[in-house]
Write a structure and sequence with these properties.
Layout: H1 3-34, H2 38-59, H3 72-99, H4 102-109, H5 112-124, H6 130-148, H7 159-177, H8 180-186, H9 188-206, H10 218-242, H11 248-253, H12 257-270, H13 276-295
Helix pairs in contact: 1-10, 1-12, 2-3, 2-9, 2-10, 3-4, 3-7, 3-9, 4-6, 4-7, 5-7, 6-13, 8-9, 9-10
């Protein structure tokens, strides 16, 4: 792998994590200040983002936005990615938040890279590198220190939230690994666009996007647009684009930047404090990621 390509992939994955952090802040404002539901936000963001990305694919000269449906194996692959990947990763994450807390959901979803490492080890019939596992464990500890300030009591854990949380981590691993062949064949715009649009079908069966219960205003609309455009259409597009340049393991590990930026942004927006434990967590996460990107 060329260094320039690897740096491009790292930049894309890191930028996606940053946009997810910004989107998470807007989502929290929509939940807390404007009483929108997580189910409505998921169905709306996926439906609109899917339309935007497919429109962009058409405008940028894609030969046919329906190319993925011509071969049976590609049709099965995109449907699988849409439901078990794109939709599942968002629904299970928000369900975990609903049953526990955003802090616990962030930490448990971040175990996703471990599932990727296990999958790649089984695929290649080779045990994972000890140093890689140690660095990943240190990164997880750093994420825990950031989002929970090292306070276990802050994390509300029930058997149901743990089950949904593990499902969230597995979904993260799945959508980081499964679409590689589709991305190479059809490009990110078509794959992510259809993944979003098709994935929005079950989401809208649960909560149609045209039935909202929150308070709609110019301010809340701005946050909805941030979630839909920056936090969904753009972020997932560039994250999956990063998979063309770096491994699934490295791309998923770079999502650790999300809690870093979310915590930093929360200080001025929600008037939270940045503790010494969280600061140490920042140093651990950044340090381990810098080391991991050299070995993955």
């Amino acid at each position: 792998m060329k260094l320039a390509e690897k740096n491009t992939g790292i930049l894309f994955a890191g930028l996606a994590a940053t946009l997810w952090a910004i989107s998470g802040i807007s989502g929290q404002i929509l939940f807390n200040d404007y009483q929108f539901s997580a189910e409505w936000l998921v169905s709306t963001r996926m439906f609109i983002a899917g339309l935007l990305l497919l429109s962009a694919a058409k405008l940028t000269g894609a030969p046919s936005i329906f190319a993925l449906f011509r071969e049976k194996k590609d049709l099965i692959a995109i449907l699988t990615f849409s439901i078990l990947g794109m939709y599942a990763v968002q629904y299970t994450y928000f369900k975990t938040i609903e049953l526990s807390s955003a802090s616990f959901a962030t930490i448990i979803q971040y175990t996703g890279p471990f599932f990727i490492i296990i999958y790649e080890a089984m695929k290649n019939k080779r045990l994972p590198n000890r140093n890689t596992l140690l660095l990943m464990l240190l990164t997880l500890i750093g994420v825990f220190m950031i989002v929970a300030n090292g306070n276990i009591a802050q994390l509300t854990v029930t058997p149901a939230s743990l089950l949904w949380g593990v499902g969230s981590a597995i979904s993260l691993a799945f959508y980081s690994v499964q679409p590689r062949n589709l991305l190479k064949k059809y490009g990110s715009l078509l794959v992510v666009g259809w993944g979003m649009l098709l994935g929005s079908v079950p989401a809208n069966l649960i909560q149609p996007f045209f039935r909202y219960t929150g308070e709609l205003s110019l301010h809340s609309l701005l946050h909805i647009l941030i979630v839909v455009i920056l936090g969904t259409a753009v972020s997932y597009f560039i994250y999956l684009s990063s998979l063309k340049y770096i491994s699934s393991s490295l791309a998923s590990i770079l999502t650790a930047f999300e809690p870093i930026f979310a915590t930093v942004l929360s200080v001025p927006i929600f008037h939270t404090s940045l503790t010494a434990i969280a600061t140490i967590g920042f140093v651990i996460v950044i340090g381990t990621i810098l080391l991991l990107q050299k070995v993955l």
